[in-house]
Amino acid sequence: MRYYDKEGLLPFVARSSGGIRQFRESDIEWLRVIGCMKKAGMSIKDIRQYLELSMQGNNTIDTRLAMFRHQREVLQAQMDELQHTLRMVEYKCWYYETAQAAGTVEVFRDMPEDKVPEQFRAIRQELKQQPEG
């Protein structure tokens, strides 16, 4: 909380005369949105800009929507990259499980494509230029 406050992300939170933050239900909702934005990879600067825009009212809806659409594209690209990485890891698990069962990685040297599970064929082709290991 102190970090968010120091970064100017809690301008909406009231304080008591003693300086203690007094959160309302709507403040908790804002904190959840801020947390989501952080998890989505938005910078503190962008989150601060979003909060400032929100406080300006309805005339900034288009800008705020554009911010979230952009972040959605960023997240989708990251998820696509992670999915590819996961397929690679799954392929390598299959590779070593198969080698373990055969007692050697030589089992792959002359393995025909139709013996490779279909979900791993594209990854295998991608890696074919690289030495297995």
Written description of the protein model:
The protein folds into 2 domains: 1-56, Multidrug-efflux Transporter Regulator, Chain: A, Domain 2; 76-133. The protein is built from 5 helices and 2 strands. The chain has helices spanning 2-6, 25-39, 44-56, 61-102, 118-127, and strands at 14-15, 21-22. A two-stranded antiparallel ribbon has the order 1-2.
Task: State the gist of this model.
The protein has 133 residues and is mainly alpha-helical. The chain has helices at residues 2-6, 25-39, 44-56, 61-102, 118-127, and strands at residues 14-15, 21-22.
Shape: elongated
SS summary, helix count: 5
Which consecutive residue ranges, at least 5 long each, have pLDDT under 50?
A: none
Roughly what is the average pLDDT, rounded to an integer?
86
Name the helicity range. Answer: 55-70%
Count of the separate structural domains:
2
Q: Kindly estimate the percentage of residues that lie in beta strands according to DSSP.
A: under 5%
Distance between the termini: 47 Å
Total number of beta strands: 2
- The radius of gyration over CA amounts to 25 Å
Spatial strand order of the main sheet: 1-2
Main beta sheet strand tally, sense and closure: 2 strands, antiparallel
Question: What is the structural class?
Answer: mainly alpha
> How are helices and strands ordered from N to C?
HEEHHHH
